[in-house]
Specification:
- By secondary structure, this protein is mainly beta.
- It has one domain: Ribosomal protein L33 (Rubrerythrin, domain 2), CATH 2.20.28.120.
- Helices cover about 0% and strands about 45% of the residues.
- A four-stranded antiparallel beta sheet has the order 2-1-4-3, with no helix packed on it.
Length: about 55
Amino acid sequence: MARSELRPVITLRSTAGTGFGYVTRKNRRNDPDRMVLRKFDPVAGRHVEFRETR
């Protein structure tokens, strides 16, 4: 079965300016806007906001 476009792969980039990113999937039906998560940035050494990039 082909991967559904309902759950696309997205990249989350750190707002600390380190260039570090996470790759995850999201449900477009539940989260139609750009996702913002607070996760750990190992380059900065602390938790920061990660925003969805396209």
